[in-house]
What does this fold into?
Amino acid sequence: MNELLLLLLAGGLGPVLLAEALLARHEVLVYTAGWRATATELPEGMPHALGAAADRPPDAYLVYLDGIGKRRFRDSRDGGRLVRALIDGAPELRVLGQVLPYSPLADPLADRPVWAWLRRHVGLLLFLHNVMQIFVAADRRYRPVYNRAVGGQIATQLRLAGYRPGSDIPVVLLGYSGGAQVATGAVDELHTRLCAPLLLITLGGFHNGANDLTHARHLHELTSAYDRIERVGTWIFPPRWRLLWRSEWNRARRAGKVTVHRLDPATHVGPRSYISPDAMLPDGRSHLDRTADTVIALIRAHGSEGTAAP
Amino acid sequence: MSPAVVVLLLVAGLSEAIGRMLPLIARRSGASRTGVAGLLMAGAVVEGTVFALWPLTAWALAALVLPAPQPGVDAPAWTPGLVAPLILAAVLAFPLLGPLLHLLLMVGVGAGLAGPLAAATGLGWWAAAGCLAVAGVGLALAVEAVRRLVGTIGATGAAEPQP
It folds into this structure.
């Protein structure tokens, strides 16, 4: 029985993982070599931003970077709930949810013919693909290009949504789970292209702590003692260890740029997740409401700090 | 060396070349598909040759440390079973875990070669494994030096102003 299991693992899972890893990284190569340009078109009828009207500047632009369930321009079910709650709670924001954090070419996984077939037959592979993309984004060999690609994608979508470089309107990157890796990686590119004041908010952030946060004004880490997936990230990525005090993450912490907010007892995923509309708190709010309230409060506090600054 | 081993060594060389080159291509823009394919083919031949030389180099090293010469003893040769795992050498390009997985693969293949080398030379298994390790590191350093030299020459050539 054990031999059969080993054979299945070696003969089945091994090649699948290897093929998947090579496929995941292939997109970065295509982008770097310039064989294909990053897509900028959205599906017909899809707006470049939701929330505050385009006829006057919003208080801030909020870019939502979804977790590994993201495979099309439209939000995933959970991400969509959060985006809706943020728009309802803060109509002064322009919210962008179309950025594809796991595709440097902004090519939705769901629209690729082979992946459409896989989605119907082996849906788990779609998640595996996006997990691999996080690993690509975290690998020091591929990270600079990956960051440039997705940072460029975010900058382009912000411009199309009406953002004017140098306008000094804050840009907030809200990264859920693996979206945090992309959010921290996009800082330099966004600073270069837009000169925007950047605020980062991670929700159960899974990231390697190796990205330079010098050009980010602040990073708010929304976490929970019950979030095992986020904790795995703090274990497996050495730059997140306190021991490596010269890592970019530890530099940012020492500079006072990282603030932790506890959202106990929320979990990373599942019926008690940060984004669950069903899990209730003693104060009568759902986990989703509390998360949205917290994000909005942080953005508004950041905005008023910016206004108060000389 | 049987045709099957030669083919496997070439495929292993191609796999190694893919694993080494793709991270480099991922950092450099402007590579044409034809250029990349050509470099991969050249890399496959070089890496396959290095793999072919590994047991021979280890055998030559073993001959140096033997207390007395062993007349009429042939160097251990690759067999399809021994070389087959090297087809996974592209695992080097695997995100995040690639270098570790590649090291484990090389250690595993080296351990497989140690038995035939020990039998051919009369050395103990550990001494044979030591010879293989030294030979492997030596070959890796040599080919890395060539790689860097080619990279430097390529970069210098690219930086020269066009007439």
Observations:
- Chain A has ten helices and seven strands.
